Amino acid sequence: MDGDRYPLHHRSEVDVDANAQRLFAHLDDHRRLAGHMEKPSMMMAGATMRVETDVLQGQAVGSVIRVIGRVLGMNLVVEEVVTERVPPLRKTWETRGEPRLLVIGSYRMGFTISPEGDRSRLTVFIDYQLPPRGVAHGLGLLFGRAYAAWCTRRMAADATTAFTGIAA
Q: Mind listing the pLDDT tens digit for each residue in 99-126?
């Protein structure tokens, strides 16, 4: 894909106590993967977002995922489509249309899994733009990088926690 379309990037890497197949199956559930968005947090200004999937549940190329919520009195919505899914190694999804978000604009996001025996190396990434205009653009300049880092770190940390104390 065009590298200039998403000029900003962040990635988080962790080792997970699960083989690649189990880790991919866990992360392939988009509600689980984006669970951090459904819990109040400081990065979400105490608000939550709701994750909705189509009949394919975000588990096939072309599947649509919607994330909807209200933050600081503003309705937010983003629609994503799965663009790549190669079990148990990687999955990518990308925004469709212009998202209504506060600190980031359009993005491509995903994860890669590097099998290491009974363990895996997980990389969660986001390539993104700032919102194109208005207050959201200014907020993006201030908080976009921190939000992108928080999001990838949360996904990576949640995956690690899910397999802590569980035999691979």
A: 998 899 999 999 999 999 999 999 999 9
Query: What total number of domains does the chain contain?
Result: 1
Q: State the burial class of residue 68 (Cβ atoms within 10 Å of its Cβ: 0-12, 13-18, 19+).
A: middle
Say which CATH number the domain at 43 has: 3.30.530.20
* Residue with tokens 């992108």, as numbered in its chain: 148
CA–CA separation, 13 and 127 (whole Å): 15
In a domain, 1, yes or no: no
Residue pLDDT, tens place only, 56-106: 999 999 999 999 888 777 888 999 999 999 999 999 999 999 999 889 999
pTM exceeding the 0.85 threshold for the entire prediction? yes
Residue 168 domain flag: no
